[in-house]
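Quick question: what would this complex look like in 3D?
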Amino acid sequence: MTAEQLIFLIVAAVTLVAGISVVTSRNLIHSALWLILTLFGVAIFYVLLDAGFFAVIQVIVYIGAIAILFIFAAMLTRRVMQDTGPQTNPNWWFGGLIALLLFAGIAFVLINWQGFSSLAPELANPSGRINQLGLALVSLDQYVLPFELASVLLVAGMIGAIFVAGEKKQ
Amino acid sequence: MYFLSDPITFIANWLGNLLLGWGVTQPVVTVILKFIGAGLVGTFGFSLVIFTIWLERKLYGRIQDRLGPNRVGPWGIFQTFPDMIKIFTKEYITPVGADKVVYNLAPILSVSAVLLTWAVIPFAQTIVGTDVNVGVLYLVAVGGIGALGIILAGYSSNNKYSLLGAFRAVAQIVSYEVPMVLALLVPVLLGRSMGVNSLVNAQSIWFVIMSPIAAFIFFTSSMAETGRAPFDLLEAESELVAGYQTEYSGLKFGMFYVGEFLHAFTISALTATLFLGGWRGPWAEQIPILGVVWFFLKAFIVYFVVVLIRISMPRLRIDQMLNFNWKFLTPLALVLLVVTSVVDKLFYIIIPGFNIVGGIIPWVRAGVHLLVNAIIVLITVQILKTHQIKGLQVVRKPRPVAVAPEPPALVIS
Protein backbone atom coordinates (compact mmCIF):
# COMPACT_ATOMS: atom_id res chain seq x y z
CA MET A 1 0.00 0.00 0.00
CA THR A 2 1.42 3.36 -0.99
CA ALA A 3 1.25 6.49 1.12
CA GLU A 4 -1.27 7.92 -1.34
CA GLN A 5 -3.66 4.99 -0.88
CA LEU A 6 -3.36 5.24 2.89
CA ILE A 7 -4.21 8.95 2.79
CA PHE A 8 -7.11 8.23 0.45
CA LEU A 9 -8.60 5.61 2.76
CA ILE A 10 -8.33 7.80 5.86
CA VAL A 11 -9.77 10.85 4.10
CA ALA A 12 -12.56 8.80 2.51
CA ALA A 13 -13.61 7.41 5.88
CA VAL A 14 -13.59 10.86 7.49
CA THR A 15 -15.52 12.37 4.59
CA LEU A 16 -18.20 9.67 4.71
CA VAL A 17 -18.65 9.97 8.47
CA ALA A 18 -18.86 13.76 8.14
CA GLY A 19 -21.35 13.47 5.29
CA ILE A 20 -23.64 11.21 7.34
CA SER A 21 -23.31 13.53 10.32
CA VAL A 22 -24.51 16.47 8.21
CA VAL A 23 -27.97 14.93 7.99
CA THR A 24 -28.10 13.23 11.38
CA SER A 25 -26.84 16.02 13.64
CA ARG A 26 -29.64 17.88 15.40
CA ASN A 27 -27.97 21.28 15.68
CA LEU A 28 -28.00 23.24 12.44
CA ILE A 29 -24.64 24.91 13.09
CA HIS A 30 -23.09 21.51 13.78
CA SER A 31 -24.52 20.30 10.48
CA ALA A 32 -22.85 23.21 8.72
CA LEU A 33 -19.56 22.35 10.43
CA TRP A 34 -19.79 18.72 9.36
CA LEU A 35 -20.55 19.95 5.86
CA ILE A 36 -17.34 21.98 5.95
CA LEU A 37 -15.40 18.87 6.95
CA THR A 38 -17.02 16.95 4.08
CA LEU A 39 -16.13 19.64 1.57
CA PHE A 40 -12.61 19.74 2.93
CA GLY A 41 -12.35 16.00 2.37
CA VAL A 42 -13.43 16.49 -1.24
CA ALA A 43 -10.73 19.16 -1.58
CA ILE A 44 -8.16 16.62 -0.39
CA PHE A 45 -9.40 14.19 -3.05
CA TYR A 46 -8.73 16.84 -5.67
CA VAL A 47 -5.18 17.17 -4.34
CA LEU A 48 -4.74 13.40 -4.53
CA LEU A 49 -5.95 13.53 -8.14
CA ASP A 50 -3.24 16.09 -8.91
CA ALA A 51 -5.77 18.90 -9.42
CA GLY A 52 -4.44 21.52 -7.00
CA PHE A 53 -6.34 24.32 -8.70
CA PHE A 54 -9.70 22.67 -8.10
CA ALA A 55 -8.78 21.86 -4.52
CA VAL A 56 -8.01 25.49 -3.75
CA ILE A 57 -11.11 26.72 -5.57
CA GLN A 58 -13.17 24.19 -3.61
CA VAL A 59 -11.85 25.63 -0.35
CA ILE A 60 -12.33 29.26 -1.45
CA VAL A 61 -15.82 28.89 -2.86
CA TYR A 62 -17.40 26.23 -0.68
CA ILE A 63 -15.70 26.76 2.68
CA GLY A 64 -14.73 30.41 2.42
CA ALA A 65 -18.00 31.62 0.96
CA ILE A 66 -20.88 29.16 0.90
CA ALA A 67 -20.34 27.53 4.29
CA ILE A 68 -19.98 30.91 5.98
CA LEU A 69 -23.17 31.99 4.23
CA PHE A 70 -24.91 28.87 5.60
CA ILE A 71 -23.74 29.63 9.12
CA PHE A 72 -24.86 33.24 8.81
CA ALA A 73 -28.25 32.23 7.46
CA ALA A 74 -28.70 29.72 10.28
CA MET A 75 -27.71 32.28 12.92
CA LEU A 76 -29.97 34.99 11.53
CA THR A 77 -33.02 32.76 11.12
CA ARG A 78 -35.34 32.59 14.10
CA ARG A 79 -35.87 29.36 16.04
CA VAL A 80 -33.52 27.14 14.09
CA MET A 81 -30.72 27.16 16.66
CA GLN A 82 -32.52 24.89 19.14
CA ASP A 83 -31.82 21.17 19.21
CA THR A 84 -35.41 20.00 19.67
CA GLY A 85 -38.11 19.41 17.09
CA PRO A 86 -38.57 16.94 14.25
CA GLN A 87 -35.67 16.24 11.93
CA THR A 88 -37.81 15.53 8.91
CA ASN A 89 -40.47 17.42 7.03
CA PRO A 90 -43.50 15.97 5.14
CA ASN A 91 -41.48 15.66 1.94
CA TRP A 92 -38.87 13.31 3.40
CA TRP A 93 -40.01 10.37 1.25
CA PHE A 94 -39.46 12.38 -1.94
CA GLY A 95 -35.91 13.33 -0.94
CA GLY A 96 -35.25 9.73 0.03
CA LEU A 97 -36.52 8.54 -3.34
CA ILE A 98 -34.26 10.94 -5.25
CA ALA A 99 -31.26 9.92 -3.13
CA LEU A 100 -32.00 6.27 -3.73
CA LEU A 101 -32.36 6.78 -7.48
CA LEU A 102 -29.11 8.72 -7.60
CA PHE A 103 -27.32 6.01 -5.63
CA ALA A 104 -28.75 3.32 -7.90
CA GLY A 105 -27.63 5.23 -10.98
CA ILE A 106 -24.08 5.72 -9.71
CA ALA A 107 -23.91 2.11 -8.56
CA PHE A 108 -25.13 0.92 -11.97
CA VAL A 109 -22.40 2.91 -13.70
CA LEU A 110 -19.71 1.76 -11.30
CA ILE A 111 -20.63 -1.95 -11.55
CA ASN A 112 -19.52 -1.99 -15.18
CA TRP A 113 -16.38 0.03 -14.52
CA GLN A 114 -13.08 -1.83 -14.70
CA GLY A 115 -10.72 0.74 -13.23
CA PHE A 116 -10.95 -0.09 -9.50
CA SER A 117 -7.64 -1.86 -9.26
CA SER A 118 -5.63 0.39 -11.58
CA LEU A 119 -3.56 3.30 -10.29
CA ALA A 120 -4.18 6.84 -11.46
CA PRO A 121 -2.02 7.59 -14.51
CA GLU A 122 0.60 10.30 -14.33
CA LEU A 123 -0.74 13.49 -15.91
CA ALA A 124 1.41 15.15 -18.53
CA ASN A 125 2.46 18.79 -18.45
CA PRO A 126 1.85 19.60 -14.77
CA SER A 127 2.75 23.29 -14.90
CA GLY A 128 0.81 24.24 -18.03
CA ARG A 129 -2.48 22.71 -16.99
CA ILE A 130 -3.95 25.89 -15.55
CA ASN A 131 -2.98 27.70 -18.74
CA GLN A 132 -4.78 25.04 -20.78
CA LEU A 133 -7.85 25.40 -18.58
CA GLY A 134 -7.86 29.16 -18.96
CA LEU A 135 -7.40 28.98 -22.73
CA ALA A 136 -10.15 26.38 -23.05
CA LEU A 137 -12.56 28.72 -21.26
CA VAL A 138 -12.03 31.55 -23.76
CA SER A 139 -11.38 29.68 -27.01
CA LEU A 140 -14.25 29.79 -29.46
CA ASP A 141 -14.45 26.09 -30.29
CA GLN A 142 -14.37 24.93 -26.66
CA TYR A 143 -16.13 26.33 -23.62
CA VAL A 144 -16.54 30.04 -24.29
CA LEU A 145 -20.35 29.85 -24.47
CA PRO A 146 -20.91 28.09 -21.11
CA PHE A 147 -18.30 30.36 -19.56
CA GLU A 148 -20.00 33.52 -20.80
CA LEU A 149 -23.42 32.19 -19.81
CA ALA A 150 -22.18 31.56 -16.27
CA SER A 151 -20.72 35.07 -16.18
CA VAL A 152 -24.01 36.60 -17.31
CA LEU A 153 -25.86 34.55 -14.70
CA LEU A 154 -23.53 35.79 -11.96
CA VAL A 155 -23.87 39.41 -13.07
CA ALA A 156 -27.65 39.04 -13.10
CA GLY A 157 -27.48 37.58 -9.60
CA MET A 158 -25.35 40.49 -8.42
CA ILE A 159 -27.69 43.09 -9.90
CA GLY A 160 -30.64 41.29 -8.37
CA ALA A 161 -28.96 41.25 -4.95
CA ILE A 162 -28.23 44.97 -5.18
CA PHE A 163 -31.84 45.65 -6.22
CA VAL A 164 -33.28 43.59 -3.38
CA ALA A 165 -30.95 45.02 -0.73
CA GLY A 166 -30.80 48.60 -1.99
CA GLU A 167 -32.78 51.48 -0.55
CA LYS A 168 -36.13 52.00 -2.23
CA LYS A 169 -36.39 55.60 -3.42
CA GLN A 170 -39.93 56.84 -3.09
CA MET B 1 30.75 25.20 1.31
CA TYR B 2 27.54 23.66 0.02
CA PHE B 3 26.37 23.17 3.61
CA LEU B 4 27.16 26.76 4.52
CA SER B 5 25.43 28.30 1.54
CA ASP B 6 22.28 26.22 1.58
CA PRO B 7 21.91 24.29 4.86
CA ILE B 8 18.20 23.43 4.66
CA THR B 9 18.41 21.70 1.28
CA PHE B 10 21.63 19.98 2.41
CA ILE B 11 19.99 18.56 5.52
CA ALA B 12 16.86 17.55 3.62
CA ASN B 13 18.94 15.73 0.99
CA TRP B 14 21.05 14.05 3.65
CA LEU B 15 18.00 12.91 5.61
CA GLY B 16 16.25 11.73 2.46
CA ASN B 17 19.28 9.69 1.40
CA LEU B 18 19.60 8.26 4.89
CA LEU B 19 15.98 7.10 4.85
CA LEU B 20 16.37 5.73 1.32
CA GLY B 21 19.41 3.84 2.53
CA TRP B 22 17.26 2.22 5.23
CA GLY B 23 15.00 0.83 2.53
CA VAL B 24 12.15 3.35 2.74
CA THR B 25 10.53 4.04 -0.63
CA GLN B 26 10.74 7.45 -2.28
CA PRO B 27 7.06 8.54 -1.81
CA VAL B 28 7.16 7.71 1.90
CA VAL B 29 10.42 9.65 2.25
CA THR B 30 8.74 12.65 0.60
CA VAL B 31 5.80 12.42 3.00
CA ILE B 32 8.12 12.16 6.03
CA LEU B 33 10.21 15.12 4.87
CA LYS B 34 7.07 17.21 4.25
CA PHE B 35 5.78 16.40 7.74
CA ILE B 36 9.11 17.38 9.31
CA GLY B 37 9.12 20.58 7.26
CA ALA B 38 5.56 21.42 8.30
CA GLY B 39 6.45 20.89 11.97
CA LEU B 40 9.54 23.05 11.64
CA VAL B 41 7.73 25.90 9.87
CA GLY B 42 4.90 25.82 12.42
CA THR B 43 7.29 25.84 15.36
CA PHE B 44 9.28 28.60 13.73
CA GLY B 45 6.14 30.70 13.30
CA PHE B 46 5.26 30.33 16.96
CA SER B 47 8.80 31.15 18.07
CA LEU B 48 8.77 34.21 15.88
CA VAL B 49 5.68 35.47 17.70
CA ILE B 50 7.60 35.37 21.00
CA PHE B 51 9.95 37.90 19.49
CA THR B 52 7.39 40.06 17.69
CA ILE B 53 5.21 40.41 20.80
CA TRP B 54 8.22 41.83 22.65
CA LEU B 55 9.12 44.05 19.69
CA GLU B 56 5.63 45.41 19.36
CA ARG B 57 5.26 46.13 23.08
CA LYS B 58 8.62 47.86 23.09
CA LEU B 59 7.71 50.03 20.09
CA TYR B 60 4.32 50.72 21.61
CA GLY B 61 6.00 51.88 24.79
CA ARG B 62 8.57 54.05 23.04
CA ILE B 63 5.95 55.86 20.95
CA GLN B 64 3.84 56.54 24.04
CA ASP B 65 6.94 57.84 25.86
CA ARG B 66 7.20 54.81 28.13
CA LEU B 67 9.99 52.26 28.48
CA GLY B 68 7.98 49.21 27.53
CA PRO B 69 8.95 45.82 28.96
CA ASN B 70 12.34 46.24 30.65
CA ARG B 71 12.58 43.77 33.56
CA VAL B 72 13.29 40.27 32.26
CA GLY B 73 16.57 39.99 30.37
CA PRO B 74 18.39 42.76 28.53
CA TRP B 75 15.89 45.38 27.30
CA GLY B 76 13.13 43.11 28.58
CA ILE B 77 13.64 40.78 25.65
CA PHE B 78 12.56 37.68 27.61
CA GLN B 79 9.38 39.32 28.92
CA THR B 80 7.21 37.07 26.74
CA PHE B 81 8.38 33.88 28.49
CA PRO B 82 6.97 34.79 31.94
CA ASP B 83 3.80 35.91 30.18
CA MET B 84 3.65 32.55 28.43
CA ILE B 85 4.09 30.63 31.68
CA LYS B 86 1.39 32.74 33.29
CA ILE B 87 -1.06 32.08 30.49
CA PHE B 88 -0.30 28.33 30.53
CA THR B 89 -1.20 28.09 34.21
CA LYS B 90 -4.46 30.02 33.99
CA GLU B 91 -7.80 28.36 34.43
CA TYR B 92 -9.98 27.48 31.46
CA ILE B 93 -13.45 28.86 31.97
CA THR B 94 -16.23 27.53 29.77
CA PRO B 95 -19.40 29.62 29.98
CA VAL B 96 -22.71 27.94 30.77
CA GLY B 97 -24.61 27.14 27.60
CA ALA B 98 -21.52 27.26 25.41
CA ASP B 99 -21.30 24.87 22.51
CA LYS B 100 -18.32 22.99 23.93
CA VAL B 101 -16.82 21.34 20.86
CA VAL B 102 -17.17 24.42 18.69
CA TYR B 103 -15.98 26.63 21.54
CA ASN B 104 -12.72 24.70 21.74
CA LEU B 105 -12.35 24.35 17.98
CA ALA B 106 -12.51 28.07 17.22
CA PRO B 107 -9.12 29.18 18.64
CA ILE B 108 -7.40 26.25 16.93
CA LEU B 109 -8.94 27.17 13.58
CA SER B 110 -8.01 30.82 13.80
CA VAL B 111 -4.37 30.07 14.66
CA SER B 112 -4.02 27.31 12.09
CA ALA B 113 -5.44 29.55 9.35
CA VAL B 114 -2.55 31.93 9.92
CA LEU B 115 0.05 29.19 10.27
CA LEU B 116 -1.12 27.54 7.04
CA THR B 117 -0.11 30.67 5.15
CA TRP B 118 3.52 29.98 5.98
CA ALA B 119 3.42 26.77 3.95
CA VAL B 120 3.79 28.64 0.66
CA ILE B 121 5.99 31.59 1.64
CA PRO B 122 9.45 31.21 0.12
CA PHE B 123 12.14 32.12 2.67
CA ALA B 124 14.87 31.76 0.06
CA GLN B 125 15.20 30.47 -3.45
CA THR B 126 15.48 26.88 -2.27
CA ILE B 127 13.76 27.11 1.11
CA VAL B 128 10.06 26.81 0.32
CA GLY B 129 7.53 24.75 2.24
CA THR B 130 5.54 23.72 -0.84
CA ASP B 131 5.79 25.49 -4.15
CA VAL B 132 2.22 24.89 -5.32
CA ASN B 133 1.43 26.45 -8.68
CA VAL B 134 -1.74 28.04 -7.30
CA GLY B 135 -0.04 29.62 -4.28
CA VAL B 136 -1.83 32.95 -4.53
CA LEU B 137 -5.24 31.28 -4.56
CA TYR B 138 -4.13 29.16 -1.63
CA LEU B 139 -3.47 32.32 0.38
CA VAL B 140 -7.04 33.48 -0.30
CA ALA B 141 -8.49 30.09 0.62
CA VAL B 142 -6.65 30.02 3.93
CA GLY B 143 -7.97 33.49 4.76
CA GLY B 144 -11.51 32.10 4.56
CA ILE B 145 -10.74 29.56 7.28
CA GLY B 146 -9.70 32.40 9.60
CA ALA B 147 -13.11 34.04 9.17
CA LEU B 148 -14.68 30.69 10.01
CA GLY B 149 -12.73 30.48 13.28
CA ILE B 150 -13.90 33.92 14.34
CA ILE B 151 -17.57 33.33 13.59
CA LEU B 152 -17.49 30.02 15.45
CA ALA B 153 -15.91 31.70 18.46
CA GLY B 154 -18.64 34.31 18.48
CA TYR B 155 -21.45 31.82 18.06
CA SER B 156 -20.32 29.23 20.58
CA SER B 157 -19.56 31.59 23.46
CA ASN B 158 -23.26 32.13 24.23
CA ASN B 159 -22.67 35.82 24.77
CA LYS B 160 -24.29 38.66 22.87
CA TYR B 161 -21.11 40.74 22.78
CA SER B 162 -19.21 37.82 21.31
CA LEU B 163 -21.85 37.32 18.67
CA LEU B 164 -21.97 41.01 17.75
CA GLY B 165 -18.19 41.11 17.57
CA ALA B 166 -18.19 38.05 15.35
CA PHE B 167 -20.76 39.62 13.02
CA ARG B 168 -18.64 42.73 12.72
CA ALA B 169 -15.50 40.69 12.23
CA VAL B 170 -16.97 38.61 9.46
CA ALA B 171 -18.52 41.64 7.75
CA GLN B 172 -15.08 43.22 7.83
CA ILE B 173 -13.07 40.19 6.76
CA VAL B 174 -15.41 39.09 3.99
CA SER B 175 -15.64 42.65 2.63
CA TYR B 176 -11.94 43.34 2.67
CA GLU B 177 -11.24 40.04 0.97
CA VAL B 178 -12.68 41.51 -2.26
CA PRO B 179 -10.13 44.31 -2.85
CA MET B 180 -7.39 42.05 -1.47
CA VAL B 181 -8.05 39.35 -4.04
CA LEU B 182 -8.36 41.93 -6.84
CA ALA B 183 -5.06 43.49 -5.80
CA LEU B 184 -3.45 40.05 -5.60
CA LEU B 185 -4.37 39.49 -9.23
CA VAL B 186 -2.12 42.37 -10.31
CA PRO B 187 1.14 40.60 -9.32
CA VAL B 188 -0.26 37.48 -10.95
CA LEU B 189 -0.76 39.44 -14.16
CA LEU B 190 2.66 41.06 -13.98
CA GLY B 191 4.51 37.89 -13.00
CA ARG B 192 2.54 35.60 -15.32
CA SER B 193 2.19 32.94 -12.64
CA MET B 194 0.18 32.02 -9.57
CA GLY B 195 3.00 30.27 -7.72
CA VAL B 196 4.43 32.42 -4.96
CA ASN B 197 8.04 31.43 -5.60
CA SER B 198 7.76 32.04 -9.33
CA LEU B 199 6.27 35.46 -8.57
CA VAL B 200 9.38 36.21 -6.52
CA ASN B 201 11.52 34.92 -9.36
CA ALA B 202 9.70 37.26 -11.75
CA GLN B 203 10.46 40.34 -9.64
CA SER B 204 13.69 41.46 -11.24
CA ILE B 205 11.94 44.81 -10.81
CA TRP B 206 9.90 44.85 -7.63
CA PHE B 207 6.15 44.87 -8.16
CA VAL B 208 5.82 47.76 -5.73
CA ILE B 209 7.57 49.87 -8.37
CA MET B 210 5.47 48.50 -11.21
CA SER B 211 2.17 48.81 -9.40
CA PRO B 212 2.30 50.87 -6.20
CA ILE B 213 -1.51 51.08 -6.06
CA ALA B 214 -1.83 47.30 -5.92
CA ALA B 215 0.73 47.21 -3.12
CA PHE B 216 -1.20 49.89 -1.24
CA ILE B 217 -4.56 48.13 -1.66
CA PHE B 218 -3.13 44.76 -0.67
CA PHE B 219 -1.39 46.19 2.36
CA THR B 220 -4.44 48.14 3.55
CA SER B 221 -6.93 45.36 3.08
CA SER B 222 -4.71 42.78 4.71
CA MET B 223 -4.26 45.18 7.63
CA ALA B 224 -8.04 45.12 7.88
CA GLU B 225 -8.02 41.31 7.73
CA THR B 226 -5.82 41.14 10.80
CA GLY B 227 -8.38 43.15 12.74
CA ARG B 228 -5.92 45.49 14.41
CA ALA B 229 -6.07 49.25 14.87
CA PRO B 230 -7.29 51.26 13.00
CA PHE B 231 -9.53 48.38 11.91
CA ASP B 232 -9.96 46.83 15.36
CA LEU B 233 -13.63 47.59 15.83
CA LEU B 234 -14.40 43.89 15.98
CA GLU B 235 -13.08 44.03 19.51
CA ALA B 236 -13.91 47.65 20.32
CA GLU B 237 -13.73 47.49 24.10
CA SER B 238 -15.95 50.52 24.62
CA GLU B 239 -18.80 48.85 22.76
CA LEU B 240 -18.29 45.10 22.72
CA VAL B 241 -16.16 44.19 25.81
CA ALA B 242 -13.60 42.23 23.78
CA GLY B 243 -15.58 41.12 20.76
CA TYR B 244 -15.56 37.46 19.82
CA GLN B 245 -12.87 36.58 22.36
CA THR B 246 -14.77 37.88 25.40
CA GLU B 247 -15.45 34.50 26.98
CA TYR B 248 -12.07 32.93 26.31
CA SER B 249 -9.51 32.55 29.07
CA GLY B 250 -6.13 31.00 29.61
CA LEU B 251 -4.40 29.39 26.68
CA LYS B 252 -7.51 29.61 24.50
CA PHE B 253 -7.34 33.38 24.70
CA GLY B 254 -3.60 33.01 24.17
CA MET B 255 -4.27 31.22 20.91
CA PHE B 256 -6.29 34.18 19.60
CA TYR B 257 -3.63 36.55 20.85
CA VAL B 258 -0.81 34.60 19.20
CA GLY B 259 -2.90 34.27 16.06
CA GLU B 260 -3.37 38.02 15.87
CA PHE B 261 0.32 38.80 16.30
CA LEU B 262 1.35 36.06 13.90
CA HIS B 263 -1.17 37.35 11.38
CA ALA B 264 0.31 40.84 11.64
CA PHE B 265 3.74 39.47 10.85
CA THR B 266 2.37 37.18 8.16
CA ILE B 267 0.84 40.04 6.20
CA SER B 268 4.18 41.85 6.41
CA ALA B 269 5.91 38.76 5.07
CA LEU B 270 3.32 38.44 2.30
CA THR B 271 3.67 42.07 1.30
CA ALA B 272 7.44 41.64 1.27
CA THR B 273 7.12 38.48 -0.82
CA LEU B 274 4.60 39.67 -3.36
CA PHE B 275 5.59 43.29 -3.78
CA LEU B 276 9.07 43.86 -2.35
CA GLY B 277 10.87 41.03 -4.06
CA GLY B 278 10.84 38.45 -1.24
CA TRP B 279 14.25 36.83 -0.91
CA ARG B 280 15.70 38.79 -3.83
CA GLY B 281 18.75 40.87 -3.07
CA PRO B 282 22.46 41.03 -3.79
CA TRP B 283 24.01 37.53 -4.07
CA ALA B 284 20.78 35.84 -3.00
CA GLU B 285 20.88 33.50 -5.97
CA GLN B 286 24.48 32.37 -5.43
CA ILE B 287 24.14 31.93 -1.66
CA PRO B 288 20.53 30.88 -0.94
CA ILE B 289 20.86 31.33 2.83
CA LEU B 290 21.41 35.04 2.23
CA GLY B 291 17.90 35.18 0.78
CA VAL B 292 16.53 34.44 4.26
CA VAL B 293 18.31 37.54 5.55
CA TRP B 294 16.89 39.75 2.79
CA PHE B 295 13.43 38.29 3.23
CA PHE B 296 13.31 38.92 6.96
CA LEU B 297 14.85 42.35 6.56
CA LYS B 298 12.06 43.36 4.19
CA ALA B 299 9.39 41.62 6.27
CA PHE B 300 10.51 43.42 9.43
CA ILE B 301 10.57 46.79 7.68
CA VAL B 302 6.96 46.25 6.58
CA TYR B 303 6.11 44.96 10.06
CA PHE B 304 7.52 48.16 11.53
CA VAL B 305 5.11 50.15 9.33
CA VAL B 306 2.23 47.90 10.42
CA VAL B 307 3.05 48.54 14.08
CA LEU B 308 3.46 52.28 13.48
CA ILE B 309 0.03 52.46 11.87
CA ARG B 310 -1.48 50.41 14.66
CA ILE B 311 -0.06 52.69 17.31
CA SER B 312 -0.76 56.05 15.74
CA MET B 313 -4.21 55.72 14.17
CA PRO B 314 -7.55 56.08 15.94
CA ARG B 315 -10.24 53.45 15.50
CA LEU B 316 -12.60 53.80 12.53
CA ARG B 317 -16.35 53.62 12.79
CA ILE B 318 -18.03 50.59 11.22
CA ASP B 319 -19.78 52.60 8.49
CA GLN B 320 -16.59 54.50 7.70
CA MET B 321 -14.72 51.24 7.45
CA LEU B 322 -17.23 49.57 5.14
CA ASN B 323 -17.62 52.72 3.02
CA PHE B 324 -13.86 52.94 2.67
CA ASN B 325 -13.83 49.38 1.42
CA TRP B 326 -16.81 49.33 -0.92
CA LYS B 327 -16.72 52.89 -2.24
CA PHE B 328 -12.98 53.44 -2.49
CA LEU B 329 -10.79 50.32 -2.38
CA THR B 330 -12.97 47.97 -4.44
CA PRO B 331 -13.64 50.33 -7.38
CA LEU B 332 -9.99 51.37 -7.38
CA ALA B 333 -8.86 47.75 -7.42
CA LEU B 334 -11.29 46.91 -10.24
CA VAL B 335 -10.08 49.83 -12.36
CA LEU B 336 -6.48 48.99 -11.63
CA LEU B 337 -6.93 45.35 -12.57
CA VAL B 338 -8.63 46.13 -15.90
CA VAL B 339 -6.19 48.90 -16.80
CA THR B 340 -3.14 46.83 -15.86
CA SER B 341 -4.22 43.84 -17.90
CA VAL B 342 -5.05 45.96 -20.97
CA VAL B 343 -1.81 47.95 -20.72
CA ASP B 344 0.31 44.84 -20.27
CA LYS B 345 -1.27 43.13 -23.26
CA LEU B 346 -0.96 46.27 -25.43
CA PHE B 347 2.66 46.67 -24.36
CA TYR B 348 3.59 43.23 -25.66
CA ILE B 349 1.70 43.85 -28.91
CA ILE B 350 3.27 47.25 -29.53
CA ILE B 351 6.82 46.64 -28.26
CA PRO B 352 8.13 44.66 -31.28
CA GLY B 353 7.41 47.76 -33.42
CA PHE B 354 10.05 49.75 -31.57
CA ASN B 355 13.67 48.82 -31.89
CA ILE B 356 14.57 48.33 -28.22
CA VAL B 357 17.44 46.25 -26.90
CA GLY B 358 16.16 43.09 -25.18
CA GLY B 359 17.71 43.81 -21.79
CA ILE B 360 15.93 47.11 -21.39
CA ILE B 361 12.40 45.84 -22.10
CA PRO B 362 11.54 45.00 -18.44
CA TRP B 363 12.53 48.51 -17.42
CA VAL B 364 10.39 50.06 -20.16
CA ARG B 365 7.50 47.85 -19.05
CA ALA B 366 7.96 48.90 -15.42
CA GLY B 367 8.06 52.54 -16.50
CA VAL B 368 4.83 52.20 -18.49
CA HIS B 369 3.07 50.54 -15.58
CA LEU B 370 4.35 53.14 -13.12
CA LEU B 371 3.11 55.91 -15.43
CA VAL B 372 -0.33 54.30 -15.71
CA ASN B 373 -0.47 53.97 -11.92
CA ALA B 374 0.44 57.62 -11.52
CA ILE B 375 -2.35 58.61 -13.91
CA ILE B 376 -4.85 56.48 -11.96
CA VAL B 377 -3.73 58.13 -8.71
CA LEU B 378 -4.19 61.60 -10.22
CA ILE B 379 -7.68 60.79 -11.52
CA THR B 380 -8.64 59.23 -8.16
CA VAL B 381 -7.48 62.32 -6.28
CA GLN B 382 -9.49 64.55 -8.63
CA ILE B 383 -12.63 62.44 -8.17
CA LEU B 384 -12.16 62.45 -4.40
CA LYS B 385 -11.76 66.24 -4.44
CA THR B 386 -15.08 66.73 -6.21
CA HIS B 387 -16.78 64.64 -3.52
CA GLN B 388 -15.13 66.15 -0.48
CA ILE B 389 -17.24 67.53 2.34
CA LYS B 390 -17.09 71.32 2.22
CA GLY B 391 -17.46 72.56 5.75
CA LEU B 392 -19.73 71.21 8.44
CA GLN B 393 -23.38 70.89 7.61
CA VAL B 394 -25.60 71.62 10.61
CA VAL B 395 -28.85 69.73 10.23
CA ARG B 396 -30.47 71.10 13.36
CA LYS B 397 -29.62 72.50 16.73
CA PRO B 398 -28.06 70.06 19.17
CA ARG B 399 -30.63 68.66 21.55
CA PRO B 400 -29.58 68.04 25.14
CA VAL B 401 -29.98 64.38 26.02
CA ALA B 402 -30.51 65.05 29.74
CA VAL B 403 -30.96 68.37 31.50
CA ALA B 404 -29.53 68.77 34.95
CA PRO B 405 -32.24 69.68 37.48
CA GLU B 406 -32.17 73.16 38.96
CA PRO B 407 -30.39 73.12 42.29
CA PRO B 408 -32.72 73.91 45.23
CA ALA B 409 -32.68 77.46 46.46
CA LEU B 410 -31.20 76.36 49.77
CA VAL B 411 -27.94 75.33 48.15
CA ILE B 412 -27.54 78.61 46.27
CA SER B 413 -28.02 80.74 49.33
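Answer marked as accepted. The mean pLDDT of chain B is 83.
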